[in-house]
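Q: What changes when MV4 is included in the input?
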Amino acid sequence: MFEKILIANRGEIALRVLRACKELGISTVAVHSTADANAMHVRLADESVCIGPPAARDSYLNVPALLAACEITGADAVHPGYGFLSENARFAEILEEHNIHFIGPKPGHIRIMGDKIEAKRTARRLGIPVVPGSDGGITSDAEAMVIAKTIGFPVLVKAAAGGGGRGMKVAQTPADLSNALANARAEAQSAFGDDAVYLEKYLAQPRHIEIQVLGDGHGRAIHLGERDCSLQRRHQKIWEEGHSPALNIAASNSIGETVAKAMRELEYLGVGTVEFLYEDGKFHFIEMNTRIQVEHPVTEAITDIDLVVEQIRVAAGGGLDLKQEDVKFFGHAIECRINAENPQTFMPSPGKIVAYHPPGGLGVRVDSAVYNGYTIPPFYDSLVGKLIVHGKTRSECLMRLKRALDEFVVDGVETTLPLFRTLVREKDIIDGDYHIHWLEDFLAKGGIDRV
Ligand code: MV4
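A: The predicted holo structure follows.
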């Protein structure tokens, strides 16, 4: 097992990783920019190193500074958290070249899943159902037209180097295809320096359902159920829940087993999330994330498995103690991402928190790095904290969530708490009847002003 882990991240996920390390008896090194000198993870870590000025590219993305921090402190492993360098294969390789463990998948798998065309090819080869579309990248408009007519319009042009919705263009009819290809290529080139694009059948109102997996890198892998992440705004998830209100247990187990089998064949190492669009009872693979995700506490709540502890254990070569039959699901969990943003306009609202009172009680968890008097810096994401609520049933979970949201006090900055207090009372949400466009449609109709 590792002696000392350097946590190459900040905010709530740095605190989350630090907690897992402490429970494993591993000493911790926090790194921080000058803007985060007073951050909670710095205060609670055994050691801390300032790695640069506020801008992420000069601090949390600064590989030489992170390497130096490892050398100075003698860290034998790095946990990247999510975002920043968490899916950077080159960073993982550089660490390994310096005999420092990267707590994450094998660099080769990070690289494959980072290329959405290769990711789909791999998924298809491993027996995972994928969205109908081109086999690989599109080399000409003529080729695209043939494929589009085969799968049927509307089609979606996507960037191979994309993800998170960047570089996607819909072509409703054949007349739209050429422009969609040109615009997607241009956007991909400017955003990623890579204009490779591929084609998929456009699914109009799917749900976004992701499967959590955990592998030991030697052919053992299990799934830990699904999370429904359909409530999103501009590709930013705000509400995630497990199980999906759209799935029965049989459907959940079936897709879970398909994915776990694929991860065994891939000899996948670590935690991972396999993303699907779900429509008309069918799952369609779109991409795979090779990191711990923001919404992992939803799965922890319904399985009582500490995903970060397991992630560290398999990274240290500890193998996978857990068997699929050990994974028992209980109840329902919902996570709300509370941001320091205006609840109507979503404009960031950094600043000093002058009163902070998180909710508590049975089945209520708040993962946050803020505290009374803390100043949310303007340089990073605007996450105040994640409210995760668990109940024996979805309706008990909703009642508890409503109570917890009403109890939550964050004064001094604007937050999206009012939006969640409205959503938890909205009929479609209570019925679990929503899809990936539901939230933006709701907001377009007036959102929280509507009620
Ligand atoms: C799609 C799609 C519809 N049809 N692919 C958006 C980001 C990236 N994860 C993939 N995305 C989508 N791919 C096909 N063939 C709709 C989306 C999409 C979306 C997916 C999941 C969650 C929110 C979304 C919001 C807009 C579009």
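Observations recorded in class: The chain has a mean pLDDT of 97.
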